Amino acid sequence: MLTLKQSRRLQSLIIGALAWAIAAVIFFPIFWMVLTSLKTEIDAFATPPQFIFTPTLENYLHINERSDYFAFAWNSVLISFSATLLGMLLAVPAAYSMAFFETRHTKRTLLWMLSTKMLPPVGVLVPVYLLAKQFGLLDSRLVLIIIYTLINLPILVWMVYTYFKDIPAEVLEAARLDGASTGQEIVRVLLPIARGGLASTMLLSLILCWNEAFWSLNLTSSAAAPLTALVASYSSPEGLFWAKLSAVSTLACAPILIFGWISQKQLVRGLSFGAVK
Length: 277
Known about the structure:
With 277 residues, this protein is an all-alpha fold.
């Protein structure tokens, strides 16, 4: 018979082992991508796959010679951060009004906003493309910033609304009694309390913008093309060059992975967000 202490320790070990196993399964594609990027094309196509090989950086050198990686990376950074900031500027007031001035139509409005995510992007490609062409926005960062903001706005509003609903209304009522205006309520009271949730929302938006490929491939060509367009350019009619494709994919994923790793504390705080009355 196991004692209570031994039983809890065994349970903790099992849960820990299961967590590590799930993490290994999730991380394996990234590990395999990085591993393949260090192989030659011959080694990358070898069957069965080779785990012992001579590493090489020739794929990264080829990418540097063929493409201006930093230009694509700068476009991704500028577009993703701009779309995220613009989305938050729109989502925070919308979520504030829905969370603290709720009406009988609030839930329906939120569901309607979320339902727009079910629309296939290809269904609105032609009108969006024609509008962008009409206003001279094709192959510009501005058109991607606008599109990314709009497609992610329903998720941002939903998440910020959820965080705001966890904040007691009495906190804002106390601020009003002290003479705070609506803007002061949001900036000086609401945002500091919900900063953990807002940080996780911004991180999610940043990841979604960074990974978006459909609109970048259809609305840009060279000047405003982000890293997703660079990755797609390594898929040619002659076939897939796995080693080079893995190298460019590694370079495209690395910045957002590093940023996510640095921001993981804020992400955890946001996921476990709750106000203390």
